[in-house]
Amino acid sequence: MNRIVRWNSHGIEYEADPRHAEIIISELGLKGSKPVTTPGVKSTSPELAEPLGPREASQFRSLVARANYLAQDRMDVQYSVKELTRRMSCPDSEDWVALKRLGRYLVGKPRVVLQYGNQHMPRYIDCWVDTDWAGCTRTRRSTSGGGLKLGIHTLKTWATTQATVALSSAEAEYYGLVKGSCQLLGLLSLLQDFGIKCMGRIHIDSSAAKGIASRTGLGKTRHIAVHLLWVQERLRNKDFELLKCKGTENPADLMTKFLSREDNERYTQEWGAVAMSGRSDAAPQCLV
Q1: 198 in the same domain as 135
Q2: Is-contact 286 239, C-beta < 8 A?
Q3: Which of 64, 108, 124, 218 has the most CB atoms lying inside 10 A of its own CB?
Q4: What percentage of the chain reaches a pLDDT higher than 90?
Q5: pLDDT digits over 226-261, tens only?
Q6: Whose CA is closest to 42, among 133, 135, 132?
């Protein structure tokens, strides 16, 4: 897998293979170029873009596939890479610009290290979820983002495009909550197999979605598919808790949209990750 793991007196450090970022930068011809502070910006006029030629399209798919592998361990680029992977079938000139933007971001931040400091065994698994309603300018589909933390340790993060076109922000947020509930219950089940008992908590910044999940039945939202209402039963059975958080304090926002430099760095740090420059060859390490 070529992940790098280091043990030190403070705990464990974990990072993706930095060669992926190096290859992306090199293939794009960006060595020595000026870096940018964010991995992407929102598209403004996708209808004016021209399709890439066969050679450029092949290179685009190859580099995006490599970036997708890198993004598994880098929550700061997950949303950007997710948007690029959606365009692999028919990339255009605007997609190529977005890929080069990601490459210039990697020039400035070629490495992001996840830090797992020593801690007492927590009582809770915390799941943070957020969505960006109709964020895609081409399809008007929403993005679900989230992550799981055991105490201060990040276990998993994700950024996925919702399969259904949500008709309101409340509906989109509820779909994001369903996604987070699946991930949380799966992790709780895995921990039980290892004899570890924890409680689950989901943090969401949408009062409307929280209201849908906390009641019984569809209410006025009759267009929401019935098979998504199992979350209501899980909450009644107290399989996990659902907590409200402020929108400005939800780190899952990092996986749902392009943010400013300040928010991008702040949320990356909240997930326990630190951007580093230079190569990692000098430090004692173990490849896994």
Answers
A1: yes
A2: no
A3: 64
A4: 84
A5: 788 899 999 999 999 999 999 999 999 999 999 999
A6: 135
Taking CA 250 as the corner, what is the angle to CA 210 and CA 126, rounded to the nearest 5 degrees?
75
Q: Are 12 and 116 in contact (CB under 8 A)?
A: yes
Q: Which two tokens stand for residue 201?
A: 């908590």
pLDDT at 200: 97
pTM greater than 0.85: yes
Q: Which domain holds residue 106?
A: 4-114+258-287
> Apex CA 89: angle with CA 85 and CA 93, to 5°?
80
CA distance 204 to 62: 36
pLDDT digits (tens, 9 = 90+) for 171-196: 999 999 999 999 999 999 999 999 99
128 within 8 A of 253, measured Cβ to Cβ: no
Distance of CA 60 to the CA centre of its chain: 21
Residues 226, 129 share a domain: yes
The radius of gyration of the chain from alpha carbons, rounded to an integer in Å, stands at 20
pLDDT in tens, 102-120: 999 999 999 999 999 999 9
d(CA 266, CA 271): 9
- Number of structural domains, the chain? 2
Residues 269 and 217 in one domain: no
Burial 57-93 (b: 16+ CB within 10 A, else e): bebbbebbebbbebbebbbbbbbbbbbbbebeeebbe
> CATH no. for residue 150?
3.30.420.10
Residues 126 and 247 in one domain: yes
